[in-house]
């Protein structure tokens, strides 16, 4: 049971694609003039993915976005192309910790990006070996910075401080950005109120059941339409649909307005995740806009084993509840109770019942239970994380 | 190189000596020949501090001070222009911090004679923070951003008087600002500019930071009252635009709230005042408990209450309001629409519109009807570049259908050939 990942251009569809024999399905990303328009899962027969046969199916999946892209292409129209805008300078930051294999793939992809004058920054977070440093030394254009305090948000803050350009674009070490990624992000900063842009994240590979499960139930992708999120269109506390830290870019100046990333949150601390979504809330509350731009495409390698996936979902649960705790504690956001209730009542409980009844298409029960367990532990772990942070600060 | 000309900068000011000093110093470092620059400060109802600041400054340009006794910004600007020598006039508010290229950018943007240039004002509130300021900033920035977008159709409301320039001849031809207005005088001038066929142009290069040190929510309520008051006067001057005014529009949006406000302001003003008092306390509370969505809603209602109160300052009872609307709110005069066919290509259609400059257009593709660009009161006549924007924003679905049908008929006429690609096949 493995799924091939394909990337096809609608203007130039092959009649069929042959893939390695061990694949039974194919996950196809469909693009029109390079812009992602939709995704579809097709069957593989004898190592062949039939495209022509499935043409109507393919057109159906892209029909809700494709017509608009076609009209825009016909009109030669781009709403982001405002008068007197030049692309700002960018720093691409990768926060990594002891994953040289993934990082190498990521660096290779970064080196393939067209040159827009960007700076490359690797933040090596509390490494246990010097493998990362050695790897980065082979790339002369990349700046290596070592951050010894553990925590993804600590590393992100370091990147925000170290970056020498106006825009800081983050990618995870296990992601490989597409060639048009950076430009698509930078074009969106033409609007002065945009302080953050997130992109579309697709799976790099779907070789194992865990990866397929992840892509099926908790994908990083947030659809194929460009969305402007602001306080008027979205409850700032419900930032899940905006995107994720694996593929986001911020203006460097935002940290002086809304503060830095909360160092008690996210990977490397007891809270596991949530650091990206927490700052999204502060950006929205400050009256700024966040854009989700599907053209900013990146490919992410999901966790390969079921245990890893389970702990990832546990981490999500912890992260969400930790950041809700923070909102309540620091910003007196009483709305967090509603968010927590809605999430449980309309989503988690439904999934749990479905899973327990073994309905088709249900998320495996252990995963939901892991997430719920994380939710319960979240507030406590946030306090623990803060305590640890304080203790370390006092120690230094 | 551009045509260097004498420039007069007119700055009306009202008791903001520090801000004024910052602006005058900012103008001293402009990338523009100083001997061609003249600055006229019109101190309107100011105490001596302003005079002292202006007297103490040592600036490389010619600086004049005119003193008035609180006669409002319209009079102040007109008096300034009366003594101005320059062929180009730039109007600046006193709370701006100009970029060094401001004057040059204004001069450069006047590539055609009959043009008004509106400069970009990034918003910075220095002292105050809070929910109202962030909303104001969003409004401000999104207004400028839409003006920057390709194919934007300018309206009279785009004439923001804080940072704009126009030839002195145009200003004098139109007799300057309307002196009876103390508020909305910029919109009113904008209307006359649009009607006179003056070209509107937005420049991001001519930017100046708007350092807002005064605005807060309670001041905005006072301002709303002035706006309501001024809107009534504005309508008397331009009856064709009365339907654009909030109190006289029949739009279904907020119809219930508007009805409630009418009742409170005009029928039972005593209860209305109590209502405003309680609503203000409620809005304060909502902000304290971070209930943003409700705050947005109720603070707006409060603002509109004070706007209506301003209307009632001019028209004290419902009878007068009714008579006013009956007298001034005229039925729309139908404007003949021009047929534009897109099947000869976009460029062709655009050239046609550029030549005709119609107020309204029927869009067709071949024999298929796509849509109407409706006449907009107080907007500039259509240009070719407006077509793409309208098609992309409003009629993209209709256009895609038309293109698909066109493609299909073309394909089926080539009997034996299979459709080569899948464009428009969905």
UniProtKB/TrEMBL annotation, chain A:
Chain ranges of the Glycosyltransferase 2-like domain: 91-258
Pfam families in the record: Glycos_transf_2
Species this chain originates from: Pontibacter arcticus
Name assigned to this protein: Glycoside hydrolase family 2
GO molecular function: glycosyltransferase activity; hydrolase activity
Record-linked InterPro entries: Glyco_trans_2-like, Nucleotide-diphossugar_trans
Family: Belongs to the glycosyltransferase 2 family.
Domain of life: Bacteria
UniProt keyword list: Glycosyltransferase, Hydrolase, Transferase
Automatic annotation (TrEMBL), chain B:
Domain Glycosyltransferase 2-like residues, every copy: 8-152
Domain of life: Bacteria
TM helices/strands, residue ranges: 260-287
The keyword Transcription regulation is annotated on this UniProt entry: no
Keyword flag Transmembrane: yes
One GO molecular-function entry: hydrolase activity
InterPro entries (UniProt xref): Glyco_trans_2-like, Glycosyltransf_2, Nucleotide-diphossugar_trans
This protein's UniProt keywords: Hydrolase, Membrane, Transmembrane, Transmembrane helix
PANTHER family in the cross-refs: GLYCOSYLTRANSFERASE, SLR2126 PROTEIN
Protein name: Glycoside hydrolase family 2 protein
